[in-house]
Design goal:
Helix 5 (172-190) runs parallel beside helix 7 and helix 6 runs antiparallel to helix 7 (222-250). The chain has two domains: 2-169, Spore Coat Polysaccharide Biosynthesis Protein SpsA, Chain A; 172-250, no CATH class. It is of the alpha/beta class and 252 residues long. 38% of the residues lie in helices and 26% in strands. The termini are far apart.
């Protein structure tokens, strides 16, 4: 039944894909949108949908933000998705037909697109994410970035057959923007906890490019595969160099 599942979504300037994202959730009685300082039409778009409840809060990290969205939901079962993800009709029917088990966390495979092209290289293939869970047994951790679900007991997962459509990037500037944001958050989170060096940052970037472009078949996807692989390498380099700078500043 749809009425025992709340969908939670974080938004920030998410207007481009939000209509498709929310339109795919019409079978769910409650969709909680938690917005972080959007300056586009995100909030106005969300309010057009009768099953959507909109809340606003300053950004406090992805893990804490997702837990806050969960706390604002009415139901025990939570389907957590991103604002650039679309639940396919097949996945929606599957979720609503499940005999839900609170001892399980349900995971789904994402199909990742760059500017409308499905990419199955560069580390984007076989992308399984944990998204459906009971909030009485499962929560998000408090990581600022690369957050995940956690339980007091052993995490047992159940794969679903349906897929999520994921539209993370449409142009190079979005790759750069996200790389900049995520590398800064990662450096802040690991400040004083990990050791690194400029040489380590360079080696990490080179290794990441080699893995993404060659081992993970980025070369098969033309300029998109090259662009994504270079972006992955830049992200690896800058997160470590930012951490190096932060730790160096702390010791001056």
């Amino acid at each position: 039944m749809a009425n025992n599942i709340s969908v939670t979504i974080l938004t920030r300037d998410s207007a481009k894909y939000l209509p498709e994202c929310l339109g795919a959730l019409s079978a769910f009685d409650e969709v909680v949108v938690l917005d972080n300082d959007s300056t586009d039409d995100t909030i106005a778009i969300a309010k057009r949908f009768p099953n959507v409840v909109v809340h606003e809060h300053p950004f406090i990290g992805f893990g804490p933000m997702k837990n806050l969205a969960v706390d604002k939901a009415s139901n025990e079962w939570i389907l957590s998705i991103d604002s650039d993800e679309v639940v396919t009709p097949e996945l929606a029917r599957e979720i609503l037909s499940l005999d839900l088990d609170a001892s399980l966390v349900y995971e789904v495979e994402r199909d990742n697109y760059y500017h409308g092209r499905l990419i199955k290289g560069c580390g984007w293939a076989n992308d399984r994410v944990q998204r459906l869970f009971n909030r009485n047994t499962t929560r998000f951790n408090d990581k600022l970035i690369h957050e995940g679900l956690t339980r007091k007991d052993i995490m047992k997962t159940e794969p679903m057959k349906g897929h999520l459509k994921h539209y993370p990037y449409d142009e190079a500037s979005q790759l750069l923007q996200k790389m900049q944001h995520y590398s800064t958050l990662w450096a802040e989170e690991n400040r004083g906890r990990r050791k690194t060096s400029p040489t380590g940052a360079v080696l990490s970037g080179l290794a990441t490019f080699f893995k993404s472009y060659l081992l993970q078949n980025g070369w098969k996807y033309g300029y998109e595969g090259l662009l994504i692989s270079v972006s992955n390498a830049n992200g690896a380099f800058y997160k470590y160099i930012k951490l190096y700078e932060a730790d160096r500043t702390d010791h001056l």
